[in-house]
Structures are given as C-alpha cells and as structure tokens.
C-alpha cells in the first residue's frame, strides 16, 4: 500500500522510511503518500501517537532522491515544479496540524527534506552518531524549503536557524541537543526504544488534552499575549469539564492512578 513501512500497535503508528540502500531517500510517490497519510490520521481513532524513523543503521532520511526527484523534476516546467513544492509543504502542514504527538526516532543522518520532516515532529530522539544537514543551499536552492524557515527559528532561535540554513553544514547530535534541535541523544540501539517508551506514555495519557496542547502551541505562535491568554482560558475551561479531568479527581480522592479515556 505504501512505499514505506506502516504499522499500528497499542494506539501507536510507526512509519519507517524503508529504502536503506539509498539512505532512505524520498521519491515523489512517498511524498504524496505521506501527505495523504498524515491527513488521514486526523480521523483515525485507532492511532493516538505517531513515530517516524528510518530502516537500517545509516539514515533516518537523506531527503529527496537525487535521480527520482531532482533528475525527474529538471525535465518538467515551472508549473510542475510549483506543484511539487506545494505538495512537499503540504506534508509538513499536515504533520503540524495533526492533533496527535509525532516523535522522530532519528537513527542516522537526517538531511534536506529528512531534516525538515524531523523538525516538523513534536519530539526528537537522536542517535549519538547521527547528524542533521539542512543542505538546500549546498545544492543551489534556497534554505527556506518545506517550512524550514518557519520551523527552525521557533525551535532554535533565528540566529542559529540562519546559520544552519545559510551554510548547510552538518550538525552532530551533541550540537543538536545543545542548541535545542533535539530533545534527547542516546546510543543508536536505544533510539527506537526511547521513542517507543515516550509514545506509550503519551498514548496512555489524556490524549484529547495532549492534542489540544499541540494545537494551542501551534496557534499561539503568531498571537499577541492577550489573545493567547484568552484562547488558553477558553480551552482550559472546556477541558475542566471533560471526562479525563474528572477521572483524575476521582482517582486522586480514591488514592488510585487515573485511567484516562481521551475525552
């Protein structure tokens, strides 16, 4: 069905880029499939958390396939180029607008589009020998691609984002952790287990509240403080009337662990 592996267990969907012989490079078909899948996941009640990772030891995702995308697109006209770039951006938009946590388990190099996809996730676990490379300018393109110029300044600040996007230099795992590009650096064999542990914790939590948290963080990026505080007040008032908040209180009174239902 997909040109990548897709598996759902215990309310956790795991998407695995599966072209290790070419460092899990993305094709036109994979872009389109991912775009549509992340839109579909908005309505998939079986899935509460998503993990993204790569097959093999070397790469999370090395970006667009040089021959199957660059070579192919150079034969097309301007309109086709614009349609392609809009499609790749729509993938990132669908990821950010998905009201469910997305965890990147970065097992190897995350370059180009792969680096942007990792940045579009909500949490990032990185192997200690992995690296990032926002290498668009190294191939004669703008560093502002697929939303990179929107995402990176919000993750690591404008000055660091400019450095990464202008130079396109490799960023090792420890540097990525130090500047806030990733949440955790672990040995390679622990990348997926740590990501899975986080996913299980989130899937067992108040999933409706978690989804609303992601939505509010996204929506408040461009708000003034007054609008942001009012939005949070309205959202929190609704959540205080929800089943999960009541479940917490009843469990607290009974000195038990709450069992959340995502409502």
Q: Could you explain the architecture of this structure?
A:
There is one protein chain. The protein is α/β, with parallel strands linked by helices. The protein folds into 2 domains: 199 residues, 2-enoyl-CoA Hydratase, Chain A, domain 1 (Alpha-Beta Complex); 47 residues, no CATH class. Helices cover 48% and strands 16% of the residues. It contains 11 helices and 10 strands. The strands form 2 sheets. It has a 6-stranded mixed sheet, with helices on both faces. A 4-stranded mixed sheet has the order 4-6-8-9. Helix 1 packs parallel to helix 3 and helix 5 crosses helix 6. The longest helix has 20 residues. The radius of gyration is 19 Å and the shape is globular. The two termini are 32 Å apart. The model has no long low-confidence stretch (mean pLDDT 94).
Would you spell out the secondary-structure blueprint of this structure?
Elements: E1 5-9, E2 12-17, H1 28-40, E3 49-54, E4 59-61, H2 66-73, H3 78-97, E5 102-106, E6 109-111, H4 113-120, E7 123-127, E8 131-133, H5 148-156, H6 158-167, E9 170-172, H7 173-178, E10 184-186, H8 191-203, H9 207-219, H10 225-240, H11 243-253
